[in-house]
Design a protein that fits this description.
Blueprint (H helix, E strand, L loop, with lengths): L1 H26 L5 E9 L2 E11 L2 E8 H5 L7 H15 L3
Antiparallel strand pairs: 1-2, 2-3
Helix pairs in contact: 1-3
Amino acid sequence: MEDKQSREEFDTALARIRHDIKGRLVIHGFFGSVTYRDVEANNLLSGSTIEVTVKGRTAERSFSRQEIEDCRLRVSGPVLQGVISMVEELSAPG
């Protein structure tokens, strides 16, 4: 039962992160896709790689499971810094 609850917390945090990224993109006038890939080590979920694509440009960052789960209530810490840097990277002229 704990595995199911733990996965639910992880998925809730990923949904919150995705929502935050989309909101930040809209501020810059962009619409894009946000995907994530689970990272497993020894058959255990150890984190995720979040990928943001806007107008054919892609930025991605990897975060540990703990960093992601810490964002289930509010996106903060290293994940927030990663989100901000991805959005800045995609919104920069180039």
